[in-house]
């Protein structure tokens, strides 16, 4: 386990060192790094930013020092790799006195997409942890290598600081075998680690807990269906704070119709495209992951644009919307059956938080299940968690904004800060 620096008592007459209460959250993609620096005394954001197009001819760094007035600074210069990107981020943070060398920085929390069955909780990074994240690359070829690069780069910059990996899959490891297993030969499934892992776990964990708080109840007492509808989209059934089913599977391709992913298709479609369409595996992968979903159906993956086209009478956009809603409704019904008793349905992420027509259509006709949306409440635009079901509703329908960075920081702080 990485050693944390110990704080020696301050000699008499000198000021005691500031308590380390800041957590830097890094979300490293293949050519980008998103980051936030938070003060965990109150969860406030001190700085947020993004480095894009790493390794390309012109990269972009956008940095907003919220603690220092909040004026966004943008630099456009080539940034060769993640090492250079993180150094540039550290430099920006230093300009506002928030640098990586600050004694107030407690730890760095990393989003890691795939933790397999091994990681059920946030974990302090050690060589063993790095080895296991590496071993999971075959099941997350796009994400885990980028996440690892972020960890190794941060480790090189601050070897003395605890690095914490927070896994997208961890919240779903409580799923019972009946929900997590595919109906295929277990020997083959085990050999190739094929099972339903689920993703967006940090968001599902945060939103289910916030929904309980909105209802004024403890998470253990609440059953929630969480609908994380962003460009990627997933649903989960959460019983008493524990995930019992989720719509994404071995990869994020399964489940709901998404921005560019098909979600559920008959696996026979893949054989058909290979045998009859003579498409290669890579071509089919690209088709289903990048050129399907809303984008594949109507050429747009932004729900704002799709609604605008529907308002103008565009039939292609209307059909794409209907297919999206039909699938969503099926999952609400399925998870209602899985949970048996549902206290709340929570909408979150870009579409879930902003698209009132999606929320309305998703629960339309489900009054028999106790689900309804109050049109006035649904139309209100607001920042925080809010109820959109009528006062008398049997099941609460809510909009609960997600905050994956805060959740990563909270989990990191809970793991590392408790020893402070
Ligand atoms: P996310 O992946 O959570 O960042 O969500 C991104 C998606 O949210 C976009 O592709 C849009 O489809 C959707 N979105 C964002 N803002 C709005 C809005 N005001 N109305 C409808 N959809 C929105």
From TrEMBL:
Keywords: ATP-binding, Cytoplasm, Kinase, Magnesium, Metal-binding, Nucleotide-binding, Transferase. Pathway: Metabolic intermediate biosynthesis; acetyl-CoA biosynthesis; acetyl-CoA from acetate: step 1/2. Its cofactor is Mg(2+); Mn(2+). Its EC number is 2.7.2.1. The keyword Kinase applies. It is found in: Cytoplasm. The active site is at residue 168. Gene3D superfamilies: 3.30.420.40. It catalyses: acetate + ATP = acetyl phosphate + ADP. One of its GO terms (molecular function) is acetate kinase activity. Mg(2+) binds at residues 27, 404. ATP binds at residues 34, 228-232, 302-304, 350-354. Substrate binds at residue 111. PROSITE patterns: ACETATE_KINASE_1, ACETATE_KINASE_2. NCBIfam families: ackA. PANTHER family: ACETATE KINASE (PTHR21060), ACETATE KINASE-RELATED (PTHR21060:SF15). Homodimer. HAMAP family: Acetate_kinase. Catalyzes the formation of acetyl phosphate from acetate and ATP. Can also catalyze the reverse reaction. Belongs to the acetokinase family. This is Acetate kinase. It comes from Streptomyces thermocoprophilus.
């Amino acid at each position: 386990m990485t050693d944390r620096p110990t704080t020696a008592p301050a000699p008499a007459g000198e000021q005691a060192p500031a308590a380390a209460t800041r957590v830097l959250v890094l979300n490293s993609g293949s050519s980008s790094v998103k980051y936030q620096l938070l003060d965990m005394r109150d969860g406030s954001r001190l700085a947020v930013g993004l480095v894009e197009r790493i390794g390309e001819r012109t990269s972009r760094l956008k940095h907003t020092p919220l603690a220092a007035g909040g004026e966004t600074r943008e630099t456009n210069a080539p940034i060769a790799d993640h090492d250079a990107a993180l150094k540039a981020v550290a430099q920006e943070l230093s300009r506002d006195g928030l640098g990586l060398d600050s004694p107030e920085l407690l730890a760095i929390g990393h989003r890691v997409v795939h933790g397999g069955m091994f990681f059920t909780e946030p974990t302090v990074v050690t060589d063993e942890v790095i080895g296991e994240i590496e071993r999971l690359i075959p099941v997350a070829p796009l994400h885990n290598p980028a996440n690892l690069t972020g960890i190794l780069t941060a480790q090189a910059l601050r070897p003395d600081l605890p690095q914490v990996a927070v896994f997208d899959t961890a919240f779903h490891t409580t799923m019972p075998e009946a929900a997590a297993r595919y109906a295929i030969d277990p020997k083959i499934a085990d050999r190739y680690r094929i099972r339903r892992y689920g993703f967006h776990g940090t968001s599902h964990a945060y939103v289910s807990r916030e929904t309980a708080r909105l209802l004024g109840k403890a998470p253990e007492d609440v059953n929630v269906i969480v609908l994380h509808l962003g460009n990627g989209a997933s649903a989960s059934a959460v019983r008493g704070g524990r995930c019992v089913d989720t719509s994404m599977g071995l990869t994020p391709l399964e489940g709901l119709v998404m921005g560019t992913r098909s979600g559920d298709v008959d696996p026979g479609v893949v054989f058909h495209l290979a045998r009859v369409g003579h498409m290669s595996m890579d071509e089919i992968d690209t088709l289903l992951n990048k050129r399907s979903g809303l984008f594949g159906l109507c050429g747009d993956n932004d729900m704002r644009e799709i609604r605008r086209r529907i308002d103008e009478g565009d039939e292609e956009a209307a059909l794409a919307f209907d297919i999206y809603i039909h699938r969503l409704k099926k999952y609400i019904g399925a998870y209602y059956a899985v949970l048996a008793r549902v206290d709340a349905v929570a909408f979150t992420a870009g579409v879930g938080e902003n698209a009132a027509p999606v929320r309305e259509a998703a629960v339309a006709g489900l009054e028999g299940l106790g689900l309804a949306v109050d049109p006035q409440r649904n139309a209100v635009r607001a920042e925080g968690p809010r109820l959109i079901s009528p006062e008398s509703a049997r099941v609460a329908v809510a909009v609960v904004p997600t905050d994956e960075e805060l959740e990563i920081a909270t989990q990191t702080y809970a793991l590392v800060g408790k020893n402070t």
